[in-house]
Amino acid sequence: MDEMSFPRPHDLLWLSRPPMGALPGWLRLDWPVVVRRDHGPGRIPIGLRGEQRSQRLAAWTDAGDVKGRVVPEQLALEARLRGHAQAMLPCLLALDAVAPRLDGMGVSWGPTGSVGFALATGVPLLRPDSDLDIRIDAPARLDADQKQGLAELARHAGCRLDIQIETVAGGFSLAEWLADRGEVLLKTNRGPVMVTDPWNHPCNHPWNACQSTVADDRPGGPISGGAAA
């Protein structure tokens, strides 16, 4: 698997055999795993999830064990909301509402987190208080109109909306960017770093070394907040 096709954070992968290491009893081997941020030659960092929010675990798999892949942008294009068993929950109603507006901004986007997992698998894991997580792929800087449009979207989403913007170097929070504090936390495969410009940073390639400047709780145990960051 070359660098251009290497799975990215929030992609969903189906594996041909179980992940490496000791596995929890709650793991469903027929469910996809979620790509998370880390680095390891020839290996893919993944997050395992179960039916409960507390059932999350960091793990690894070989690139050769990937038999299927769904990226968030596919979920946005395939209109999987239609006929979904939980289509009337606030998070899915919000997705239905924001989808045409995101399309109109000309950005590449897709749902991640619990919503993305539910749409990709059909498993009814969502709750009335589930967030709507979205990944926006932005290798080039978003313009002022797009930034303003995203700000308006976040204010009127109808549920808690968490948008992560992905540059070449890593991902950062839209909410933090809109706060205009001078720096944002850029999550890279080498750890989180505080940057003034997430589109112009020395760690400008996801396979380059990038020294973390922020303490974090990366792999080896439960993943706080979800299976991918």
Automatic annotation (TrEMBL):
InterPro entries xref list: Holo-ACP_synthase, MdcG_C, MdcG_N
Domain named Phosphoribosyl-dephospho-CoA transferase MdcG C-terminal: residues: 86-198
Superkingdom, natural source: Bacteria
Domain (Phosphoribosyl-dephospho-CoA transferase MdcG N-terminal): residue spans on this chain: 8-71
Entry keyword set: Nucleotidyltransferase, Transferase
GO molecular function: nucleotidyltransferase activity
Alphabetized Pfam families for the sequence: MdcG, MdcG_N
Protein name as it appears in the record: Phosphoribosyl-dephospho-CoA transferase
Naturally occurring in which organism (per UniProt): Bordetella genomosp. 8
Organism lineage string: Bacteria, Pseudomonadati, Pseudomonadota, Betaproteobacteria, Burkholderiales
